[in-house]
Amino acid sequence: MPRRSTRxxxxxxxxxxxxxxxxxxxxxxxxxxxNRPEVVSLAGGMPNITDLxxxxxxxxxxxxxxxxxxxxxxxxxxxxxxxxxxxxVEVMAEEQIHANPDDVVVTCGSQQxxxxxxxxxxxxxxxxxxxxxxxxxxxxxxxxxxxxIHHVAMDEHGLLPDALRTAVLALRAEGARVKFLYxxxxxxxxxxxxxxxxxxxxxxxxAHEVDLLVVEDNPYGLLTxxxxxVPALRAMDDQVIYLGSFSKTFAPGFRIGWVxxxxxxxxxxxxxxxxxxxxxxxxxxxxxxxxxDRFDWRGQIVAFRDMYRERRDAxxxxxxxxxxxxxxxxxxxxxxxxWVTLPEGLDSQALLARAVNERVAYVxxxxxxxxxxxxxxxxxxxxxxxxxxxxxxxxRLGRVIAAELEMRATFGLGAETPLHRPGLGPAPxxx
Length: 431
Ligand SMILES: Cc1ncc(COP(=O)(O)O)c(C=O)c1O
Fold this sequence. Notes:
Elements: H1 26-34, E1 40-41, H2 54-72, H3 82-93, E2 104-108, H4 109-121, E3 127-132, H5 136-144, E4 148-155, E5 158-159, H6 161-173, E6 178-183, H7 197-209, E7 213-217, H8 233-236, E8 241-245, E9 256-260, H9 263-277, H10 282-294, H11 297-322, E10 328-329, E11 337-341, H12 348-357, E12 360-361, E13 363-364, E14 377-381, H13 387-410
Parallel strand pairs: 1-12, 3-4, 3-6, 6-7, 7-8
Antiparallel strand pairs: 2-9, 4-5, 8-9, 10-11, 11-14, 13-14
Helix pairs in contact: 2-10, 4-5, 4-9, 6-7, 11-13
């Protein structure tokens, strides 16, 4: 009889090297706790889709199955259905992007778009430049491909073009292969910061100067609260690889996103897509096209903007009313997130258990850095709870921070005695 392994995981020696950099994301670990109804979760990034007209959407899907079910439930094109790509081009025109449906690849959410772009460009050890901080899901994908992530600083106007130039030149001088810049110019996840038009121009100038590919991730672009969206980077430069998604402007469950890429890149993406999933979900493409055809989707986006604006206002009001002195935060003009910087010496990760005890959850800032920074930061999202709950969440959070400050004062731990974790030094002021 074969001897049974006494190890917890008998396959531990057999996993691919790349799995060593795959770790459970802080967001996932949090969901279990944060989903308890008594906790105000400022942690997740789930869109609030409760106001979608589900009855009429249901009727449209019913018609779809009856009239086109045979095609909608069949395999499809690896690039995505032509009608879907045409619709995507129409959606992108809202952000002044003019494109050809032939240059679009439909993906399983923009998360898979990130994965495909990474697959076709990255060998182990290649460098990807990312804003500091950056979307945790992108960092996970980049890590899984064994890329070396190098963060580039940003301020309240977005990524710093000079820091980008310096980073590229320094990395190349040491022999690194720098493959692309990953940036979220609109309502960055996690900071909520939007690159100004001048910044975008300067960033593209630097990218040209040093011959650097730019990957623009823009799932929140149309969710602007205070005026028109700033033109996308791709609207200013057709060499930019652009990632889009229906997750925040319609619903994430369909898992439909896309990549718009220069022609040669697009060809490789389609091959990678076929190897990954044969074809992106055909039924979802039919369903989304039916929604776009039969509903006032632009009107729905305006309704989403109004709803998220009210929630953003509730969060900013709550932070203003409840945060102890020394706490700062960003003031987003769209999207889902506020980035909070705690008073010096405080550690958002260490504080989380106490926060959950006080029935409020957030994501610690270090989740958004590949290098352990962000210890004094946290991401507070205002997309999912109601305005009243968000306000209450900030009240609870304020109490937690105040109690920690009081405890530190009692024990004589001043700002000059930070806990010994990286990232707890001076935090960049993004507010
Ligand atoms: C910046 C960013 N990119 C990509 C994604 C992935 O979105 P999806 O795969 O649902 O399109 C998200 C989701 O939160 C995000 O915030």
